[in-house]
Structure prediction request, 278 residues.
Amino acid sequence: MDGAGSPPESSDLLVCTDVDGTLIRGCRAAPAGTVVVDRYTDGRVAVTPDRTGPSLMELARTATWCVVTTRTAEQFSRLLLPTPAWALVANGLVLLRNGHPVPAWESTMRRLLSAASEPTDEVNRRLRPLHRAIGCRERNVERAFLVWSGPEATAPETVDEAAQLVAGHGWHVVVSGGKLYILPECLDKAAAVAHLASHLQTQRIVAAGDSPLDLTLLLEADAAIMPADAVLMTRPLSHDLVSRAGTRIQRTQRLGLEAVEDILNWILAQARDGRRFS
Prediction:
């Protein structure tokens, strides 16, 4: 990632953005007016509108910008985007300051995980028969959470059984983007952002995201936005969550890469006027 310039010395506003599906989109080839920022293992490319880089550099100069992503630090470092002042990667397990890890943060998070949830190896053991039965791909991310991918992984019966196997052990499951995430309940984007905001003494949080993994962050932010074609809206949600999302989270007017532009416009407006709530 490229340097974004000097952040403000102090800011009452913390702007939190997801990356995949929010600021970048995957496609087979880069359309006109976009730049390639990453390449996926399946041959697709991740692209974003031409103006994303300059817009994010402006954001970094006018507010405290924090990326919040399930990408690992290595996956995040591949992105050809401006470097934010802060990044919470691996769903909040690791904190980066100007692209560099903050060791004390991860140490604290691992102690929290150890106290609040069953060890990853033990959860993996519980899930092993189910994983063998369906034969999906699996990643053990930073020895902190699991990701299963493939159509078998997100079949309703698989999701239900996995949820039952980890219930009561401090873990839960989330389906997002064709993958099944199996995570400790305390490894949560909203909780990580709240802790960082307390440390930075910021007064307001605004957020942009697109997936069920972003939902708690979007709901708990002072203002939030998601793309009109967000993955979040393709998943069944409880009536309570639908009601809260409908009143608290704005949606872009446009879809796809145009939705990225709408999100950039919205977060820049928030950064220029910290008093704006909508």
